Amino acid sequence: MNLILLGPPGAGKGTQAKKIAVKFDLPHISTGDMFRETAQSGSELGKQLQGYMSAGKLVPDDVVIAVVRQRLSSDDAKKGFLLDGFPRTLAQAQALDKALAGDGKKIDGVISLTVDADEVVRRLSSRRVCVACGASYNLISNPAKKEDVCDACGGKVIQRADDNAATIRNRLEVYREQTSPLIEYYSSAGVVREIDGMQPVEEVFKKICAVIK
Ligand code: AP5
Q: Does the domain spanning 2-116+167-212 belong to CATH 3.30.230.80?
């Protein structure tokens, strides 16, 4: 099963992807997580990636496509995968289709999470993440038990550099212009299922599971 989770920033892609990956035993491949990890390394590439992310701009297609192709060639992705945050442009979607077709594969389903802009701003401005293990918290809906300390590993919990009002606005605009056309691209292949992402996490998860099954 080769799946894509599509949706604007803050739609709940990462939250749902973690749960889907466990339930359906699929590797969760998040380009955002991969880029943040590289950025943390402090390498030259990491500094460039951080520059794009902090500004709410997309990382150039050639860089993203090379990273994803390499990740998809890993053994654990041979039986299927769940992509979160990729593809984000038409060029990325076409490159993915081409790479999969070369292996006799295709995208089986695209789960499109919908949320309105006010909810995106509310969720992202209150999101906090652990720098050590990546666990995600929310000051409103899911706070860490002890302020700024990760429940899971004791690491420091911070606000992502791109979760400020100005950058959130840019990210929403980039999504509208460059990523939302992918819904039509995949609709023409008949694989898109839209899910209302405004519901509580468990409700959204139930609906996604029903669609996948
Ligand atoms: P990425 O990390 O992919 O960011 P994003 O798409 O903007 O998505 P987010 O991680 O912000 O949100 P999410 O939908 O995962 O929501 P979450 O579950 O965390 O990308 C970051 C950057 O990397 C990009 O801007 C770009 O620069 C670069 N990049 C990455 N991929 C790229 C690509 N393919 N091409 C080019 N550049 C790329 O939830 C958000 C908050 O809401 C959390 O606090 C959560 O607890 C809460 N929440 C979740 N669900 C619910 C719910 N149902 N009800 C209430 N609260 C909820």
A: no
